[in-house]
Fold:
Amino acid sequence: MSKVVLGVAGGIAAYKAADLLRKLTEVGHDVQVVPTASALNFVGAATWAALSHRPVAADVWTAAEDVPHVQLGRQAELVVVAPATADLLAKAAHGLADDLLTNTLLTARCPVLFVPAMHTEMWDHPATVDNIATLRRRGSVVLEPASGRLTGTDTGKGRLPEPAEIAQLAELLLRRPAALPFDLAGRHVVVSAGGTREPLDPVRFLGNASSGRQGYAIAAVAAARGARVTLVAANVDLPDPAGADVVRAGSAVELRDAVEKAAEDADVVVMNAAVADFRPSDTVDHKIKKSGGVPAPIALQENPDVLADLVRAARPGRLLVGFAAETGDSTATVLDHGRAKLAAKGCDLLVVNAVGPGKAFGQSDNAGVILGSDGSETSVELGPKAVLAAALWDAVSARLAANGRNSAS
Ligand code: CTP
Structure:
Protein backbone atom coordinates (compact mmCIF):
# COMPACT_ATOMS: atom_id res chain seq x y z
CA MET A 1 0.00 0.00 0.00
CA SER A 2 1.46 3.35 -1.04
CA LYS A 3 0.57 6.98 -0.45
CA VAL A 4 -0.63 8.48 -3.71
CA VAL A 5 -1.83 12.02 -4.40
CA LEU A 6 -4.33 12.17 -7.25
CA GLY A 7 -4.46 15.73 -8.55
CA VAL A 8 -7.46 16.51 -10.73
CA ALA A 9 -7.44 19.64 -12.86
CA GLY A 10 -10.48 21.31 -14.42
CA GLY A 11 -11.26 19.41 -17.59
CA ILE A 12 -14.24 17.32 -18.61
CA ALA A 13 -12.05 14.19 -18.36
CA ALA A 14 -12.21 14.68 -14.57
CA TYR A 15 -15.09 12.20 -14.62
CA LYS A 16 -12.70 9.50 -15.89
CA ALA A 17 -10.36 10.24 -12.99
CA ALA A 18 -13.08 8.82 -10.71
CA ASP A 19 -12.51 5.45 -12.40
CA LEU A 20 -8.74 5.85 -12.04
CA LEU A 21 -9.23 6.60 -8.34
CA ARG A 22 -11.25 3.44 -7.97
CA LYS A 23 -8.56 1.37 -9.66
CA LEU A 24 -5.85 2.83 -7.39
CA THR A 25 -7.82 2.23 -4.20
CA GLU A 26 -8.92 -1.27 -5.25
CA VAL A 27 -5.32 -2.47 -5.22
CA GLY A 28 -4.93 -1.00 -1.73
CA HIS A 29 -3.29 2.38 -2.25
CA ASP A 30 -4.00 5.20 0.14
CA VAL A 31 -5.14 7.96 -2.24
CA GLN A 32 -5.58 11.61 -1.34
CA VAL A 33 -7.54 13.44 -4.01
CA VAL A 34 -6.56 17.08 -4.59
CA PRO A 35 -8.98 18.62 -7.09
CA THR A 36 -8.54 22.17 -8.33
CA ALA A 37 -11.46 24.59 -7.87
CA SER A 38 -12.35 24.15 -11.56
CA ALA A 39 -12.25 20.35 -11.28
CA LEU A 40 -14.96 20.58 -8.61
CA ASN A 41 -17.20 22.21 -11.23
CA PHE A 42 -17.03 18.96 -13.19
CA VAL A 43 -17.08 16.35 -10.40
CA GLY A 44 -18.12 17.23 -6.86
CA ALA A 45 -16.20 16.66 -3.63
CA ALA A 46 -18.64 13.96 -2.48
CA THR A 47 -17.66 11.68 -5.37
CA TRP A 48 -13.95 11.97 -4.57
CA ALA A 49 -14.52 11.56 -0.85
CA ALA A 50 -16.70 8.47 -1.26
CA LEU A 51 -14.34 6.74 -3.68
CA SER A 52 -11.16 7.57 -1.71
CA HIS A 53 -12.74 7.00 1.73
CA ARG A 54 -11.34 10.30 2.96
CA PRO A 55 -12.19 13.99 2.66
CA VAL A 56 -10.84 15.75 -0.41
CA ALA A 57 -8.04 18.24 0.12
CA ALA A 58 -9.11 21.17 -1.99
CA ASP A 59 -7.53 24.31 -0.56
CA VAL A 60 -4.55 25.48 1.45
CA TRP A 61 -6.67 27.11 4.19
CA THR A 62 -8.63 24.11 5.50
CA ALA A 63 -6.83 22.51 8.49
CA ALA A 64 -4.05 25.06 8.00
CA GLU A 65 -2.50 23.94 11.30
CA ASP A 66 -1.44 20.70 9.52
CA VAL A 67 0.35 22.75 6.84
CA PRO A 68 -1.30 20.70 4.05
CA HIS A 69 0.42 22.61 1.24
CA VAL A 70 3.72 21.07 2.34
CA GLN A 71 2.71 17.82 4.01
CA LEU A 72 0.88 16.24 1.09
CA GLY A 73 3.78 16.56 -1.32
CA ARG A 74 6.36 15.46 1.25
CA GLN A 75 4.49 12.31 2.22
CA ALA A 76 3.46 11.22 -1.27
CA GLU A 77 5.20 8.28 -2.94
CA LEU A 78 3.62 9.24 -6.25
CA VAL A 79 1.66 12.23 -7.55
CA VAL A 80 -0.61 11.58 -10.53
CA VAL A 81 -2.31 14.55 -12.19
CA ALA A 82 -5.20 13.35 -14.34
CA PRO A 83 -6.47 15.16 -16.24
CA ALA A 84 -3.64 17.68 -16.51
CA THR A 85 -5.02 20.70 -18.37
CA ALA A 86 -2.94 23.15 -20.43
CA ASP A 87 -3.32 25.65 -17.57
CA LEU A 88 -2.13 23.19 -14.92
CA LEU A 89 0.86 22.14 -17.03
CA ALA A 90 1.77 25.80 -17.56
CA LYS A 91 1.63 26.49 -13.82
CA ALA A 92 3.68 23.40 -13.02
CA ALA A 93 6.31 24.27 -15.64
CA HIS A 94 6.67 27.77 -14.23
CA GLY A 95 6.60 26.80 -10.56
CA LEU A 96 3.41 28.74 -9.78
CA ALA A 97 1.72 27.72 -6.56
CA ASP A 98 -1.64 29.41 -6.17
CA ASP A 99 -3.65 26.45 -4.90
CA LEU A 100 -3.15 23.20 -3.02
CA LEU A 101 -2.37 21.05 -6.07
CA THR A 102 0.31 23.38 -7.45
CA ASN A 103 1.81 23.73 -3.95
CA THR A 104 1.89 19.95 -3.67
CA LEU A 105 3.70 19.70 -7.01
CA LEU A 106 6.40 22.05 -5.73
CA THR A 107 6.97 20.14 -2.51
CA ALA A 108 6.78 16.60 -3.92
CA ARG A 109 10.10 14.77 -4.24
CA CYS A 110 8.54 11.55 -5.54
CA PRO A 111 7.80 10.66 -9.19
CA VAL A 112 5.14 12.88 -10.80
CA LEU A 113 2.96 11.54 -13.61
CA PHE A 114 1.07 14.14 -15.66
CA VAL A 115 -1.74 12.79 -17.83
CA PRO A 116 -2.79 15.59 -20.19
CA ALA A 117 -6.26 15.94 -21.69
CA MET A 118 -7.30 18.97 -23.73
CA HIS A 119 -8.37 20.02 -27.20
CA THR A 120 -5.86 19.35 -29.98
CA GLU A 121 -5.24 23.07 -30.58
CA MET A 122 -4.23 23.57 -26.95
CA TRP A 123 -2.00 20.45 -27.01
CA ASP A 124 -0.29 21.64 -30.21
CA HIS A 125 0.17 25.24 -29.03
CA PRO A 126 3.86 26.19 -28.76
CA ALA A 127 3.31 27.31 -25.16
CA THR A 128 2.04 23.87 -24.17
CA VAL A 129 4.76 22.14 -26.22
CA ASP A 130 7.43 24.18 -24.39
CA ASN A 131 5.87 23.59 -20.97
CA ILE A 132 5.79 19.85 -21.53
CA ALA A 133 9.41 19.83 -22.69
CA THR A 134 10.36 21.72 -19.52
CA LEU A 135 8.52 19.27 -17.27
CA ARG A 136 10.09 16.27 -19.01
CA ARG A 137 13.55 17.79 -18.80
CA ARG A 138 13.06 18.10 -15.06
CA GLY A 139 12.20 14.41 -14.77
CA SER A 140 8.42 14.45 -14.63
CA VAL A 141 6.59 11.89 -16.74
CA VAL A 142 4.13 13.46 -19.18
CA LEU A 143 2.03 10.97 -21.15
CA GLU A 144 0.86 11.58 -24.70
CA PRO A 145 -2.91 11.99 -24.91
CA ALA A 146 -4.95 9.45 -26.82
CA SER A 147 -6.61 10.29 -30.14
CA GLY A 148 -10.33 10.08 -30.75
CA ARG A 149 -13.57 11.81 -29.91
CA LEU A 150 -13.13 15.03 -27.89
CA THR A 151 -15.76 16.84 -25.84
CA GLY A 152 -17.81 18.10 -28.76
CA THR A 153 -18.36 16.42 -32.08
CA ASP A 154 -14.69 16.96 -32.98
CA THR A 155 -12.01 14.30 -32.95
CA GLY A 156 -8.24 14.51 -32.63
CA LYS A 157 -5.39 14.11 -30.20
CA GLY A 158 -6.23 15.18 -26.68
CA ARG A 159 -8.28 12.48 -24.97
CA LEU A 160 -7.32 11.21 -21.54
CA PRO A 161 -5.68 7.77 -21.89
CA GLU A 162 -7.72 4.87 -20.50
CA PRO A 163 -7.80 4.79 -16.67
CA ALA A 164 -6.50 1.18 -16.74
CA GLU A 165 -3.42 2.31 -18.67
CA ILE A 166 -2.80 5.24 -16.31
CA ALA A 167 -3.18 2.90 -13.31
CA GLN A 168 -0.72 0.47 -14.90
CA LEU A 169 1.93 3.18 -15.36
CA ALA A 170 1.26 4.59 -11.87
CA GLU A 171 1.85 1.13 -10.40
CA LEU A 172 5.05 0.84 -12.40
CA LEU A 173 6.35 4.15 -10.99
CA LEU A 174 5.48 3.06 -7.44
CA ARG A 175 7.51 -0.13 -7.87
CA ARG A 176 10.29 1.36 -9.98
CA PRO A 177 10.39 5.17 -9.55
CA ALA A 178 12.97 5.58 -12.37
CA ALA A 179 11.14 3.31 -14.84
CA LEU A 180 9.96 6.03 -17.24
CA PRO A 181 12.89 8.22 -18.31
CA PHE A 182 12.36 10.15 -21.56
CA ASP A 183 15.13 8.18 -23.22
CA LEU A 184 13.39 6.88 -26.36
CA ALA A 185 12.54 10.31 -27.79
CA GLY A 186 13.25 10.42 -31.54
CA ARG A 187 13.18 6.60 -31.81
CA HIS A 188 10.65 4.61 -33.83
CA VAL A 189 9.84 1.29 -32.22
CA VAL A 190 7.64 -1.47 -33.62
CA VAL A 191 5.97 -3.89 -31.24
CA SER A 192 3.92 -6.91 -32.30
CA ALA A 193 1.39 -8.26 -29.81
CA GLY A 194 -1.34 -10.83 -29.50
CA GLY A 195 -1.72 -14.12 -31.31
CA THR A 196 -2.27 -14.85 -34.98
CA ARG A 197 -5.33 -16.71 -36.26
CA GLU A 198 -4.99 -18.98 -39.27
CA PRO A 199 -8.41 -19.42 -40.90
CA LEU A 200 -9.86 -22.82 -41.68
CA ASP A 201 -13.14 -21.46 -42.98
CA PRO A 202 -14.92 -18.09 -42.56
CA VAL A 203 -15.76 -18.79 -38.88
CA ARG A 204 -13.02 -21.12 -37.61
CA PHE A 205 -9.31 -20.71 -37.12
CA LEU A 206 -6.17 -22.20 -35.57
CA GLY A 207 -5.17 -19.76 -32.82
CA ASN A 208 -3.42 -19.48 -29.48
CA ALA A 209 -4.04 -18.12 -26.00
CA SER A 210 -2.05 -14.88 -26.22
CA SER A 211 -4.06 -11.94 -24.84
CA GLY A 212 -1.68 -9.23 -26.06
CA ARG A 213 -1.30 -7.75 -22.56
CA GLN A 214 2.49 -8.05 -22.43
CA GLY A 215 2.93 -6.49 -25.88
CA TYR A 216 0.49 -3.68 -25.03
CA ALA A 217 2.42 -2.97 -21.82
CA ILE A 218 5.66 -2.86 -23.86
CA ALA A 219 4.05 -0.38 -26.27
CA ALA A 220 2.60 1.80 -23.48
CA VAL A 221 5.92 1.98 -21.64
CA ALA A 222 7.80 2.83 -24.86
CA ALA A 223 5.33 5.65 -25.64
CA ALA A 224 5.68 7.00 -22.08
CA ARG A 225 9.47 6.96 -22.58
CA GLY A 226 9.08 9.16 -25.66
CA ALA A 227 9.22 6.66 -28.55
CA ARG A 228 7.08 6.84 -31.68
CA VAL A 229 5.35 3.49 -31.39
CA THR A 230 3.77 1.32 -34.08
CA LEU A 231 1.86 -1.50 -32.45
CA VAL A 232 0.97 -4.40 -34.74
CA ALA A 233 -1.89 -6.08 -32.91
CA ALA A 234 -3.04 -9.58 -33.80
CA ASN A 235 -6.53 -10.26 -32.48
CA VAL A 236 -6.23 -8.26 -29.27
CA ASP A 237 -9.26 -7.05 -27.38
CA LEU A 238 -7.69 -4.24 -25.34
CA PRO A 239 -7.94 -0.43 -25.63
CA ASP A 240 -5.22 1.16 -27.77
CA PRO A 241 -2.29 2.42 -25.67
CA ALA A 242 -2.20 6.23 -25.80
CA GLY A 243 0.33 7.61 -28.23
CA ALA A 244 0.74 4.34 -30.19
CA ASP A 245 -0.23 3.88 -33.83
CA VAL A 246 -2.15 0.62 -33.90
CA VAL A 247 -2.14 -1.54 -37.04
CA ARG A 248 -4.37 -4.64 -36.98
CA ALA A 249 -3.34 -8.00 -38.38
CA GLY A 250 -5.17 -11.34 -38.34
CA SER A 251 -2.93 -14.09 -39.69
CA ALA A 252 0.84 -14.61 -39.60
CA VAL A 253 1.20 -13.45 -43.20
CA GLU A 254 -0.75 -10.24 -42.47
CA LEU A 255 1.34 -9.67 -39.36
CA ARG A 256 4.58 -10.26 -41.33
CA ASP A 257 3.49 -7.68 -43.95
CA ALA A 258 2.53 -5.09 -41.31
CA VAL A 259 5.70 -5.58 -39.25
CA GLU A 260 8.01 -5.46 -42.28
CA LYS A 261 6.39 -2.25 -43.53
CA ALA A 262 6.60 -0.54 -40.14
CA ALA A 263 10.14 -1.85 -39.54
CA GLU A 264 11.55 -0.03 -42.59
CA ASP A 265 12.54 3.05 -40.58
CA ALA A 266 12.43 1.46 -37.11
CA ASP A 267 15.21 1.60 -34.54
CA VAL A 268 13.80 -1.37 -32.63
CA VAL A 269 11.43 -4.23 -33.43
CA VAL A 270 9.99 -6.23 -30.53
CA MET A 271 8.38 -9.46 -31.69
CA ASN A 272 6.12 -10.23 -28.77
CA ALA A 273 3.26 -11.72 -30.82
CA ALA A 274 2.63 -15.44 -30.67
CA VAL A 275 2.89 -16.24 -34.37
CA ALA A 276 1.51 -19.56 -35.64
CA ASP A 277 4.28 -21.62 -37.20
CA PHE A 278 1.84 -23.34 -39.54
CA ARG A 279 -1.40 -22.52 -41.34
CA PRO A 280 -3.97 -24.69 -43.09
CA SER A 281 -2.89 -25.25 -46.69
CA ASP A 282 -6.44 -24.83 -47.90
CA THR A 283 -8.96 -22.32 -46.64
CA VAL A 284 -12.54 -23.09 -47.49
CA ASP A 285 -14.60 -20.04 -48.46
CA HIS A 286 -17.82 -21.38 -46.90
CA LYS A 287 -18.60 -22.75 -43.45
CA ILE A 288 -17.68 -26.44 -43.19
CA LYS A 289 -20.95 -28.29 -42.40
CA LYS A 290 -21.33 -31.21 -40.02
CA SER A 291 -23.57 -32.90 -42.57
CA GLY A 292 -20.51 -33.34 -44.78
CA GLY A 293 -19.15 -35.89 -42.29
CA VAL A 294 -15.78 -35.89 -40.54
CA PRO A 295 -13.53 -33.67 -42.69
CA ALA A 296 -10.22 -34.93 -44.00
CA PRO A 297 -7.21 -34.22 -41.72
CA ILE A 298 -6.15 -30.60 -42.00
CA ALA A 299 -3.06 -30.25 -44.16
CA LEU A 300 -0.67 -27.55 -42.92
CA GLN A 301 2.01 -25.46 -44.51
CA GLU A 302 4.76 -23.43 -42.88
CA ASN A 303 4.29 -19.75 -42.08
CA PRO A 304 7.02 -17.19 -42.51
CA ASP A 305 9.24 -16.74 -39.45
CA VAL A 306 8.97 -12.97 -39.10
CA LEU A 307 11.77 -12.56 -36.59
CA ALA A 308 14.16 -14.81 -38.53
CA ASP A 309 13.39 -12.85 -41.73
CA LEU A 310 14.15 -9.57 -39.93
CA VAL A 311 17.43 -11.00 -38.66
CA ARG A 312 18.35 -12.07 -42.20
CA ALA A 313 17.54 -8.58 -43.50
CA ALA A 314 19.50 -6.99 -40.62
CA ARG A 315 20.13 -3.27 -40.91
CA PRO A 316 22.97 -1.69 -38.92
CA GLY A 317 21.64 0.06 -35.86
CA ARG A 318 18.26 -1.70 -35.83
CA LEU A 319 17.78 -3.80 -32.70
CA LEU A 320 15.70 -6.96 -32.83
CA VAL A 321 14.01 -8.42 -29.76
CA GLY A 322 12.35 -11.82 -29.59
CA PHE A 323 10.20 -13.53 -27.00
CA ALA A 324 10.13 -17.18 -26.07
CA ALA A 325 7.23 -18.59 -24.12
CA GLU A 326 8.47 -21.97 -22.94
CA THR A 327 7.31 -24.80 -20.70
CA GLY A 328 10.53 -26.75 -20.17
CA ASP A 329 10.56 -30.51 -20.68
CA SER A 330 12.55 -33.63 -19.80
CA THR A 331 15.51 -32.46 -21.90
CA ALA A 332 15.89 -28.81 -20.91
CA THR A 333 14.70 -26.07 -18.56
CA VAL A 334 12.80 -22.97 -19.65
CA LEU A 335 16.05 -21.00 -19.52
CA ASP A 336 17.96 -23.62 -21.56
CA HIS A 337 15.27 -23.41 -24.25
CA GLY A 338 15.54 -19.62 -24.17
CA ARG A 339 19.32 -19.61 -24.57
CA ALA A 340 19.07 -22.07 -27.46
CA LYS A 341 16.36 -19.96 -29.11
CA LEU A 342 18.40 -16.76 -28.81
CA ALA A 343 21.30 -18.51 -30.56
CA ALA A 344 19.03 -20.02 -33.22
CA LYS A 345 17.12 -16.81 -33.96
CA GLY A 346 20.17 -14.54 -33.90
CA CYS A 347 18.34 -11.52 -32.47
CA ASP A 348 19.93 -8.98 -30.09
CA LEU A 349 17.74 -9.67 -27.07
CA LEU A 350 15.31 -12.42 -26.20
CA VAL A 351 12.90 -12.46 -23.28
CA VAL A 352 12.18 -15.96 -22.07
CA ASN A 353 9.28 -16.70 -19.79
CA ALA A 354 7.54 -19.77 -18.45
CA VAL A 355 4.02 -20.44 -19.66
CA GLY A 356 1.45 -22.99 -18.60
CA PRO A 357 -1.74 -23.11 -16.54
CA GLY A 358 -2.10 -19.77 -14.69
CA LYS A 359 1.25 -18.47 -15.98
CA ALA A 360 1.74 -15.50 -18.32
CA PHE A 361 -1.05 -15.95 -20.91
CA GLY A 362 -4.01 -13.73 -20.06
CA GLN A 363 -2.56 -12.83 -16.64
CA SER A 364 -1.70 -9.31 -15.55
CA ASP A 365 1.62 -10.41 -14.02
CA ASN A 366 4.64 -11.94 -15.69
CA ALA A 367 8.21 -12.92 -14.85
CA GLY A 368 11.05 -13.47 -17.28
CA VAL A 369 14.75 -13.41 -18.05
CA ILE A 370 16.11 -10.94 -20.61
CA LEU A 371 18.91 -12.67 -22.50
CA GLY A 372 21.40 -10.62 -24.52
CA SER A 373 23.43 -11.78 -27.49
CA ASP A 374 26.44 -10.49 -25.48
CA GLY A 375 25.76 -13.20 -22.86
CA SER A 376 24.00 -10.90 -20.38
CA GLU A 377 21.06 -12.32 -18.40
CA THR A 378 18.69 -10.11 -16.40
CA SER A 379 15.96 -11.71 -14.30
CA VAL A 380 12.72 -9.86 -13.70
CA GLU A 381 10.70 -11.32 -10.86
CA LEU A 382 6.96 -11.87 -10.99
CA GLY A 383 5.18 -8.51 -11.14
CA PRO A 384 2.98 -6.39 -13.40
CA LYS A 385 3.71 -6.79 -17.11
CA ALA A 386 4.72 -3.11 -17.27
CA VAL A 387 7.65 -3.88 -14.93
CA LEU A 388 9.02 -6.50 -17.33
CA ALA A 389 8.38 -4.01 -20.17
CA ALA A 390 10.40 -1.30 -18.41
CA ALA A 391 13.31 -3.69 -17.77
CA LEU A 392 13.26 -4.61 -21.46
CA TRP A 393 13.39 -0.93 -22.53
CA ASP A 394 16.28 -0.37 -20.08
CA ALA A 395 18.21 -3.12 -21.89
CA VAL A 396 17.26 -1.75 -25.33
CA SER A 397 18.06 1.84 -24.37
CA ALA A 398 21.53 0.89 -23.09
CA ARG A 399 22.26 -0.87 -26.41
CA LEU A 400 20.93 2.06 -28.49
CA ALA A 401 23.16 4.43 -26.54
CA ALA A 402 26.18 2.14 -26.97
CA ASN A 403 25.51 1.84 -30.73
CA GLY A 404 25.28 5.64 -30.93
CA ARG A 405 28.63 6.00 -29.15
CA ASN A 406 30.26 3.39 -31.40
CA SER A 407 29.02 5.00 -34.61
CA ALA A 408 30.17 8.44 -33.40
CA SER A 409 33.69 7.21 -32.63
N1 CTP B 1 8.20 -15.77 -34.34
C1 CTP B 1 8.06 -15.20 -35.58
N2 CTP B 1 7.47 -15.89 -36.59
C2 CTP B 1 7.04 -17.15 -36.40
C3 CTP B 1 7.19 -17.76 -35.13
C4 CTP B 1 7.77 -17.03 -34.13
O1 CTP B 1 8.47 -14.05 -35.76
N3 CTP B 1 6.48 -17.81 -37.41
C5 CTP B 1 8.84 -15.00 -33.27
C6 CTP B 1 7.98 -14.76 -32.06
O2 CTP B 1 7.27 -13.54 -32.16
C7 CTP B 1 9.00 -14.72 -30.94
C8 CTP B 1 10.08 -15.66 -31.39
O3 CTP B 1 9.95 -15.76 -32.80
O4 CTP B 1 9.58 -13.45 -30.80
C9 CTP B 1 10.04 -17.02 -30.80
O5 CTP B 1 8.76 -17.57 -31.02
P1 CTP B 1 8.46 -19.09 -30.69
O6 CTP B 1 7.10 -19.44 -31.14
O7 CTP B 1 8.82 -19.32 -29.25
O8 CTP B 1 9.61 -19.76 -31.57
P2 CTP B 1 9.62 -20.81 -32.69
O9 CTP B 1 10.76 -20.46 -33.56
O10 CTP B 1 8.27 -20.95 -33.32
O11 CTP B 1 10.03 -22.13 -31.90
P3 CTP B 1 9.13 -23.29 -31.22
O12 CTP B 1 7.69 -22.94 -31.45
O13 CTP B 1 9.58 -24.51 -31.91
O14 CTP B 1 9.53 -23.26 -29.77
About this structure: The pocket of cytidine-5'-triphosphate is lined by residues 252, 271, 273, 275, 277, 303, 305-307, 322-325 (CB under 6 Å). The longest helix spans residues 385-408. The chain has two domains: 3-175, 188-287+295-408. The chain has a mean pLDDT of 94.
